[in-house]
Amino acid sequence: MNALTVLISCPDQVGLVTHITRVLAAHQLNIIAMREFVDEANKAFFTRIACTGNLENAEKLKAKLLENLPNAAEVNLITEQEKQIAVLVTKEYHCLAEILIKNQFKTLGANVKCVIGNYESLRGFTEKLGIPYFYVDHNNKDKSVFEAEIKEIINQFGVDYLVLAKFMRILSADFVKDYAGKIINIHHSFLPAFIGANPYRQAFERGVKIIGATAHFVTDNLDEGPIITQHTNHVDHNFGVKEMVRAGKEIEKKVLLEALELIFEDRVFVSGNKTVVFK
């Protein structure tokens, strides 16, 4: 028996679950788990179905599903296969370290094909774990040239996703368009939010009581792409800047790894500027 994940998004209508399950049964696929959600405001239907069976012709199954679904339906059939990723970094190591350690012990749910950094700082650590590291300098260089050099590296590996593990450069709209829906970012988010340099110092000086982090898909609007997951931690007057930074890094790691797990297990649908996440 082979595993198959079926992802469907389409306009909502009566009888969709019946139509879908009938087609799967006709192809001798056994449903192990099925989750569905209806966005009533937008009249949209989403489902994730885990199946087992011997699928002989994926294209035939996809065509039959589309035949039984409304116009504008999207169907993805995913066999058990680890995703391939590239990680982009600057100098901070905490998110990269979590990714590479899990990759080393085969618990990431994906294969790290390469790490690309705009500083040399993380080369030694990366290469000790057997991952190729590519340095792309951004200094005194037009952004289009800088990004073209990054693309050239990425395209050597045929990756499914780009993970920005504290990559501190703003990507152009053209770059984002080339990898639309494939770039995942992590950033601090505070209540209230602090932007610019030294956000943890700003938070400390303001006396915040909650710190947090957000993992999201990257779009043209900086840090405003569809949110995958978020977490917060409570802090108090006992936290100095150093403690704020330490707590912030811990929650950034947690949020990023949780988001990656959801994505690598094909549990995330993007719907406009929101996500539907089947945990």
UniProtKB/TrEMBL annotation:
PROSITE patterns, per database record: ACT
Keyword annotations of the record: Hydrolase, One-carbon metabolism, Purine biosynthesis
HAMAP family hit by this protein: PurU (MF_01927)
Coiled coil residues, start to end: none
Family, per entry: Belongs to the PurU family.
Protein name, UniProt field: Formyltetrahydrofolate deformylase
Summary of the function given for this chain in its UniProt record: Catalyzes the hydrolysis of 10-formyltetrahydrofolate (formyl-FH4) to formate and tetrahydrofolate (FH4).
Originating gene: purU
EC numbers, comma separated: 3.5.1.10
KW Hydrolase (keyword) present: yes
Pathway the protein takes part in: Purine metabolism; IMP biosynthesis via de novo pathway; formate from 10-formyl-5,6,7,8-tetrahydrofolate: step 1/1
Keyword Hydrolase part of the UniProt annotation: yes
ACT domain residues: 5-80
Catalytic site: D223
Lineage start: Bacteria, Pseudomonadati, Bacteroidota, Sphingobacteriia, Sphingobacteriales
GO molecular function: formyltetrahydrofolate deformylase activity
Reaction catalysis annotation: (6R)-10-formyltetrahydrofolate + H2O = (6S)-5,6,7,8-tetrahydrofolate + formate + H(+)
NCBIfam families in UniProt: PRK06027.1, PurU
